[in-house]
Amino acid sequence: MSVRITEAPIDVAAETAALSRGRVGALVTFTGICRGEEEGAPIAALVLEHYPGMAEDEIKRHVEEANKRWPLLAVRIAHRVGRVAPGETIVFVAAASAHRQAAFAAAEFLMDYLKTRAPFWKKVERADGTHWVAARQTDDAAAARWKKPGREAAE
Amino acid sequence: MKVLYFAWIRERIGKPEEEVELPASIATVGDLMDWLKKRGEEYAYAFDNPKAVRAAIDKVHVQPAAKIAHAREIAFFPPMTGG
Question: Is the whole model's pTM more than 0.95, yes or no?
Answer without folding.
Answer: no
